Amino acid sequence: MWCSEIHLGEVADDTEQEKSGEGDTTTVEGTTPGDETNPADETAATEESTAEETEETTTAGETTADDGTAGETTAGETPAEATAREAEQKESREPEADISQPVMQESDERQQEQYEAAVLEATACRTTPPAKDRPSSAVSRDSQGRAYLSETGRTSARSAMGEMKEGRVPTAPHLPSPERTGTTLEGTMSNSALNIVWSYGLNRNVPVLNLTDGFRKAIMYACSHVGVMYDFVNNKQFILQGHLNPITCSCISDDKRWLVTGEKGRDAMVNVWDTYTGVPIQTLFDPNPEGGVTAVALTPDARYLATLSAGPVQIMAIWDWTIDGEMPICSAELQPSYGVQDYIQFYSEDIHHVLTNSDTQVLFFTWAERSMKFYDPPLTDEDFNKPVGRFSMSIYQTNSSRALTATSIGNLVVWDNNKPLTKVVSTEQFADKKALKIIKVQDRGISVLTTTDRYIVIGDQAGHVKFFDQSLKLIYWYQDIHFGPITSVSFATDPDFLTVMRVNTEYPLDASIPAPKFVIRDFVVGTSIAIIGNVTTNGSKVQVIQREHDAAIHALASHPRLPLIAIGSYSGLLKVWNYQKKEVMVSRVFDRGSFPQTCVYDPKGAYLVVGFTNGSVCVLDSITLQDEIKEPFHFARDAITQIVFSHDSRFFATADAEYTTSLFKAQSLKEGAPFFYMGRYRAHYKPIRDLLFGVQLDSNRPRLLSLGADRVMVEYDLEKTEKDHIVVASSDRIEQSAVPCCMAWYPAVTKEHFIVTANNQFKLKLYNATTKMCRKTLLGPTYGSPVQKLAIVPTKGQSGNCYGAYMTEDKVGLIIMPLDGNPHNAMALVAHPSGVAAMSISHDGRYIFTAGGTDATVHMWEVNSIALEAQTRLGGADLIPFYGLMEGGREGELFAELEDFFYYAQIRSQGVNATDDRGVSTTIPLSEVPFVMRALGFYPTEQEIEDMVNEVKFSQYVQTGQYMEELDLGTFIRLYVNHRPAFGLSPEKLQWAFDTLGVPSPAGGAIDRGELLDMLQSKGEHMTEYELAEYLTTLLGFNPEGGSSEMHDLDTAVAGDVIDQNLPHNINATMFARQILGFALFSDSPQALE
């Protein structure tokens, strides 16, 4: 019966005393509101409590655990006597049994059947996945919810009991952790070259799930796009990898075995995992282009799965996931006016009733095979003349027709069947509901609403967890958790747990007048400030499991000698982890407004330098994180984006968001601070993409270089630099059209010293370290976005190939050195779908760390170079990988044309009209390379032609001292594949150019003919008027045999008239492509079809 005269707002008092314990364990006590009630309330509460106790005593006294095991007390027996008797029985149980075995009255056949049914149900839940034909289908329940066996199930039950007595029923492991050689970290080494072995941080917007089930103490939480099963007793992780987008929702079955994770984004999916093995056993793929789900929920028996899709028009679907993962058994479309529905709850007593809610609307569903109906009861502030607030979560009440919804202003909305009120109380559930009343529970917003056993549980923005009975009387209140606003509360499942009072325990007293012990399951809480805590109710002990960053992580640095990784975030928190022991060594919280943007250790490992978003720089002791200088350096006016040290720790330099480079120099500690400020210099007019220290070739002196988005590489003269006077040694433009993204020193695998750069056109380029001449251009990794950072993996004491680690916008990868353009020499995996903000490599090269920026997580990747080498061998040797990059491969039309062009180039080089005998060889002169490239459809600029010629010409110079004047077919194929655009000509780029340079028109940006001719001659590479006339008349089709390059000369007298008569006055991108270049800009565009 609903109690409408409860006193909830009055008992919420935040002034109770706090009790603390040792270390990370805090002892807390619940609030006892008895002191705040008046005598009349106490009398009423006493009478009601006495009535409830009388009712419980005179009832058959059955207690059912979550796994279906039924415990019974003798009629008239007091709870204390029952507890004592159960303790004696528990001591006498057989040690082989895996679940509790309450004493049975052998003379009572009915009780025997109930016990057998409970054993069968528990065994089925632990050993078999839920399916239509699982043994628990032989279990039935009477009107009071007690389990008993049908005739068909008795034989199976006795067989299961026999297996248990023989010790053959498997128990739940702590975490799946197969043995691996060569590492002591958890996880499994896959066939991939990189594998996540540990994750730091968590997604605080996804609820933390409790996996504790009597055999293990573990939790599951989302960490970017992976799930983490964490054994917080043994400090072990098991990583669940299977998503391409950040995990947005999750749920766990009642028996803690079946885990569901969902994501939102492109190629989104829903995975069902077996937490005993860590294996995904079902995947639901979403064909929706927008993809993904906002919420998932399992039925109590874990047979059915409910999902809420993402997108403007959401779909509520029910899946029989154990049978079919392709199509739901029923679904319904939801109007956008309902808001984004992001929470699902099944009715435990009838799974065909389910509710969902957004922050403005609660929906009640009823479903069956191939059909689903739902109701959307309205509720506004005017309905009850009081504010409602934003909805957070909703639940069904036990043994009632009512449902509850929590709101952001501390209200509980009570929903009931939309029927006339009668004196007869009905518990029958209907989907057609209406708002019955609004109850003010507290002032703080309610963020969590859930149930456990017979209690209703509330978690709020004040960090409190409150327990109510079904009549909404406050039973107990955990107010001293102090973890921040609660976002999730998840309870353990223990087959031996009993909710009756037990002796020799330290459970707190509840808030009723009799004040019996409040016996509740252990639970885990998650908060909005990224703290996870475990509450052991027997003793009211609170343990911090995780205390992570609750803001974006951009600062990441590994120690040069020790297994330490420093992680800094915009929350002002800087933590140093021992990544071998997985322990926090030291942490520090900086003052408000000081947010770490980047950090780096000096090569000797003595200092940790941190750059902040406000432009300041701190020098810290690497062990204690204490300041080594009295005041931070603060010479930049914008965020510090990069910090680098020289190899001898004499200098460190910073780059900031104002495009300036600052230099700092070491000094004797006798002079004060370990470093002093030298000066700043602005050598770039666009963002600095990379900063790099190196070593002079003829000495051990350091050298400093910077690379900007302005395509300029600048080297600074450190020898001539003085206080407040930075000297630039050289400034070289290294790219023509591409924008460089990063640079690194090329490993010493050749005699020549190179600097390797990556640009936004998916190219890797090698520049001579002294002359800055481009010596080689190679096709880089093409995994969605260009390389943003490249670093050489240390290989101390190892022989064989060198490796480079790189990151793109959302991936991390590995590539084999030396670079040759072979696509099989590189691999990449999704590291952080929301973007990779930083990357660091361990001092021994075994691990790569990536920071996810806004997802507030860091992944630790184990390097498996053997897998990458195997991938390379499987891709083929010599030219086989390059044939695969050509359209049609070795047997395709392009390769056949290339052979013809190759031999025709030999004829051209010997003279087209020559009458002498011609020599045929396997090589062509370097001078013919541009012509063959253009014949294949690749039109390089003059600078690109020079780079290609130099690449071949100087390829053997360091080894032999001779120039290469010719190249064979294999060398040409490599040259063509590496230099041509990675994804062909882009019509979007041509359209962008006309939109940028031209004036708006119905057909897009248009450029005046005179302005276009002037820009073609004055912008970019120089083009004479004669050359322009020749090219245009040839493109317009007025020159035979391809213009003057072969057998005819250009007639300049008529070229001007031809251009004037045939070139339109206003030219747009489509016209330029079709009428001048001779191809359609977009093959399916209306303009192209005219």
TrEMBL record:
Keywords: Cell projection, Repeat, WD repeat. Pfam families: WD40. WD repeats lie at residues 546-587, 829-865. Residues 23-48, 57-82 have a biased composition (Low complexity). SMART domains: WD40. InterPro entries: EF-hand-dom_pair, WD40/YVTN_repeat-like_dom_sf, WD40_repeat_dom_sf, WD40_rpt, WD_repeat_EMAP. It is found in: Cell projection, Cilium. Residues 1-186 are annotated as: Disordered. Residues 83-96 have a biased composition (Basic and acidic residues). GO terms for cellular component: motile cilium. Gene3D superfamilies: EF-hand, YVTN repeat-like/Quinoprotein amine dehydrogenase. It comes from the Eukaryota. This is Cilia- and flagella-associated protein 251. It comes from Littorina saxatilis.
